[in-house]
Specification:
Blueprint: H1 2-16, H2 19-28, E1 39-49, E2 53-64, E3 69-80, H3 95-98, H4 105-114, E4 117-120, H5 123-133, E5 141-144, H6 161-167, H7 178-190, E6 192-193, E7 196-197, H8 198-217
Parallel strand pairs: 1-4, 4-5
Antiparallel strand pairs: 1-2, 2-3, 6-7
Length: about 220
């Protein structure tokens, strides 16, 4: 036993001379990729209405927050809202259709709480209307697929939603209804330009602005 212990001690002494090289080797190894990818959640949004919102469509999706790749749909919701007799209605909606309808505020708040980013194709229209109904959404990071992606630089002649869907072969049997439009937007964002999806490009384009704003707030 004594001889065995002595041999072990001598072995450790011999390794001590190469310890700096071992430490350097370990320090230069790439960080291990987690077996379970970190999950982000995005809320794809579409609203219908003119001066007031009369329909809401939401799709909650998961994405790999390490690679920004879409991972799948988690939940969805759509609902009609009676905004009052003074509200102007889009062509596909009638007074009878929306009369007495109420959106499920608890369900929508649940979806907002799960999302770290909200995406619509025209934040200039959608964001103020949604934030008016759901102030909690002001605390979420918003991204706009209309202005957040350089569609013209990608070779498209227009940035309109229906045009882009048509150019990508996306069919929508019920344009200007909230949930079908949200689904079409999700299908559009899932399309790839080369090996990278529009969804990934949009997240990456929006991230530096968020980091820069955070850094500016520290001064």
């Amino acid at each position: 036993m004594e001889g065995f212990a002595q041999a072990i001690g001598e072995a450790f002494e011999s390794l001590a001379t190469i310890r700096p090289a071992i430490d350097q080797f370990l320090a230069e190894l790439p960080k291990p990729v987690p077996l379970v990818a970190p999950v982000g959640r995005a809320l794809i949004l579409d609203l219908e209405g003119l001066d007031e919102t009369v329909e809401v469509g939401l799709i909650l999706v998961a994405y790999n927050s390490h690679t920004d790749d879409l991972a799948g749909t988690l939940d969805s919701y759509t609902g009609l809202r009676d905004a009052g007799v003074a509200a102007k209605l889009p062509g596909k909606f009638s007074r009878k259709m929306v009369a007495g309808k109420k959106i499920d505020k608890a369900k929508i708040e649940e979806l907002i709480a799960q999302a770290d980013v909200i995406i619509s194709h025209n934040n200039g229209f959608d964001r103020p209307r949604f934030e008016k109904l759901f102030p909690s959404s002001r605390r979420r990071h918003w991204l706009c697929s209309l202005n957040g992606l350089p569609w013209l630089n990608f070779g498209f002649q227009e940035t309109g939603f229906e045009y882009l869907c048509e150019r990508h072969g996306i069919r929508n049997s019920d344009w200007h209804r909230a949930l079908p439009d949200a689904q079409a937007l999700l299908e559009l964002l899932a399309q790839k330009r080369g090996s990278i999806s529009y969804f990934s490009e949009l997240l990456r384009a929006g991230r530096p602005q968020r980091v820069k704003a955070t850094a500016a707030g520290k001064h």
